[in-house]
Automatic annotation (TrEMBL):
InterPro entries xref list: AKR (IPR020471), FDH-like (IPR044477), NAD(P)_OxRdtase_dom_sf (IPR036812), NADP_OxRdtase_dom (IPR023210)
Location of the region described as Disordered in the Swiss-Prot/TrEMBL record: 301-331
NADP-dependent oxidoreductase domain location: 13-312
Protein name per the record: Aldo/keto reductase
Top-level taxon of origin: Bacteria
PANTHER family, alphabetized: GH17980P-RELATED
Organism of origin: Streptomyces cadmiisoli
Lineage: Bacteria, Bacillati, Actinomycetota, Actinomycetes, Kitasatosporales
Pfam family, one: Aldo_ket_red
MF terms (GO), sorted A to Z: oxidoreductase activity
Cellular component, GO annotation: cytosol
Length: 331
């Protein structure tokens, strides 16, 4: 287990992302969602992440229901604030925002102190818990000043009151996350899609800053929304059709992996976990089968020869840490 910053909150190296059980893109049943969470528990996963944004609260409700049968102690739950849910007319669906659910609510961007507290209170009710372990400011890209001026101090106060154990920010970019690391006392940042086999932009400033400051990093989007899980024509990269050059690069990575008796999925997960600033790798799953596959891939890392070939062929920069760097260190 790894501790998030100086918070005392512990997470395992592999975590469960709750977007899928919030009906991301396509619907899953309550039973399938609960089976996915049960599979994660069976595989030793104890850190579960969700957000009000995921299915307009559906992910939080399903996660809370599924975890209710397990001891709260030893389970780490994170959720997010910044999108407050307000009742809507329920006409139509939420597919424009990526979720196959009825449009029962609308999202309101709100990083005010009051909005943070109200959003968290609603999340606790949906989850059926009296506290969560981690709260992230969720995607404050276009609301940065309000997030720093009002949202972050509100989280600091909630942490001091013991309502939450650790606080941070979660985004799909590195610049603003680096600012959170350098200018605040966040315990952790969640960086999605910016530290993968195809995109190492977090390596330039964010990860070094996190190391200097003792801030933990959780990596999401290890598969870049699908391309690194199954590269083929039509695969998605950052939730859109993959550009031809990136598809070609992913196919080359897959070919090298297979040549070393491993899989691209295993390599993608192992790469994210190898950086010393990274406390956990967050993988979204919508079924027990997906959870089982991710766990199996995570625990079968590629051999050192695979990483050597990636560096020798220019598919990976030499400064990016890989698992083989640790195994090959002199004793």
């Amino acid at each position: 287990m790894n501790t998030l910053g100086r918070s005392g909150v512990e997470v395992g190296p592999l975590a469960f992302g709750g977007g899928g059980i919030g009906n991301l893109y396509t619907a899953v049943t309550d039973e399938q969602a609960h089976e996915a969470v049960a599979a994660a528990r069976r595989r030793g996963i104890r850190y579960f992440d969700t957000a009000p944004h995921y299915g307009l609260g559906l992910s939080e409700r399903r996660l809370g229901e599924a975890l209710r049968q397990y001891p709260r102690s030893g389970t780490t739950i994170s959720t997010k604030v910044g999108r407050r849910l307000e009742p809507a007319d329920g006409i139509g669906d939420d597919l424009a925002n990526g979720f196959a659910v009825p449009a029962t609510h609308r999202r309101v961007w709100d990083f005010t102190a009051d909005g943070i507290r109200r959003t968290l209170e609603a999340s606790l009710e949906r989850l059926g818990v009296d506290r969560v372990d981690v709260v992230y400011l969720h995607d404050p890209d276009d609301h940065a000043e309000q997030a720093f001026r009002e949202g972050y101090p509100a989280l600091e106060e909630l942490r001091a009151q013991g309502v939450v154990g650790a606080i941070g920010a979660g985004m799909n970019q590195t610049a603003l996350l680096t600012r959170f690391v350098e200018d605040t006392d966040v315990d952790v940042v969640l960086c999605a899609g910016r530290y993968t086999l195809l995109d190492q932009s977090a390596l330039t400033e964010l990860l070094p800053a996190a190391r200097r400051r003792g801030t933990s990093v959780v990596i999401g989007g290890a598969f870049n929304s699908g391309l690194l899980a199954d590269p083929r024509p039509g695969s998605t990269y950052n939730y859109a059709a993959a550009p031809p050059e990136l598809l070609g690069r992913a196919l080359r990575l897959k070919s090298v992996a297979e040549g070393h008796g491993t899989t691209l999925r295993a390599a993608a997960l192992a790469f994210c976990a190898a950086h010393p600033a990274v406390a956990s790798v967050l993988v979204g799953a919508r079924s027990a089968a997906e959870v089982d596959d991710c766990a199996e891939q995570f625990h079968r890392p590629p051999p050192p020869s695979f990483w050597r070939e990636l560096r020798e062929t220019g598919l990976l920069p030499p400064e990016a840490p890989v698992p083989a760097d640790r195994t090959e260190e002199p004793s």
